[in-house]
Design a protein that fits this description.
The chain has about 250 residues and is mostly loops. It has four helices and eight strands, in the order αβββββββαβαα. This is LRC18 protein.
């Protein structure tokens, strides 16, 4: 079996030197763009940090020990090779920001325990392989922003769009069905056509005049070029937060 790239080995000293002060004044461990292929076990000794950035690496798996980061409020795992998340991620009760876009996640490999992140404000699931919205997302009543762009979704459930504090939803570039099916002709037009089910000689002059007027209106309606059907759109869309964007601050809560 062919082995993948060996990746960069992160030592505890390297990790300590990568701690920065975040814009909110907390301690941020920034190991982004380090060529890491395996979650560094040594950073478990720094589990008291407020923010953890492992984005733009080649990590395939997040261990269950991620639960040790109990102070974590901000977790960025975007642009890795993740195919699943551990159930223990639901124990990060202080988490308000979670970015897992641009990975290889499927709906069935997202743990139900995501619905335990009751303080989550921002969730980015874009650029994955989701064909459905995890049911637990509807329980995240504190969510203000959610990214669902570039997946395989065909619908957005009401449980998501009706989240009480949701302000921004990005669902661009999903295979939503176009609303091209025309509705049945309006009843008013059907009724106009039934006016001509009698002969003209059987109508009085006033009725005949009215029928001819309605027929002219009907012809005008038929001659109007129909406007193209509207495509499904979502208001309040954000610019996608993907590997093409260097400024990840757009998805941070101000």
């Amino acid at each position: 079996k062919a082995k993948g790239p060996k990746g960069t080995k992160i030592t505890l000293k390297t990790a300590k030197n990568s701690i920065r002060v975040s814009s909110e004044g907390g301690r941020r461990l920034d190991l982004s763009r380090m060529g890491i292929t395996t979650f560094p076990k040594c950073i478990l000794k720094l589990a008291d940090v407020d923010e953890l950035d492992l984005s733009r690496n080649m990590i395939k798996k997040i261990p269950s020990t991620i639960e040790k980061f109990q102070n974590l409020r901000w977790l960025d795992l975007h642009s890795n090779q993740l195919e699943e998340l551990p159930k223990s991620i639901g124990k990060l009760q202080n988490l308000f920001y979670l970015n897992i876009c641009n990975n290889k996640l499927t709906t069935k490999n997202l743990p139900e325990e995501l619905n335990l992140l009751k303080n989550l404000r921002i969730l980015n699931l874009g650029l994955n392989h989701l064909d459905d919205i995890p049911t637990g997302i509807g329980a995240l009543t504190e969510l203000k922003e959610i990214g669902l762009f570039d997946n395989a979704l065909t619908a957005i459930p009401d449980s998501v769009t009706s989240l009480p504090k949701l302000k921004k939803l990005n669902a661009e570039r999903n295979p939503f069905p176009d609303s091209t099916e025309e509705e049945e002709p309006a009843d008013s037009i059907k009724r106009l056509e039934t006016l001509y089910l009698v002969q003209e000689k059987d109508l009085c002059s006033s009725c005949l005049k009215m029928c001819k007027g309605e027929r002219e209106k009907l012809n005008e309606l038929k001659n109007v070029t129909p406007s193209p059907p509207k495509k499904l759109s979502f208001p309040l869309l954000l610019t996608p937060n993907s590997s093409a964007l260097g400024n990840q601050e757009e998805w941070r809560l101000r």
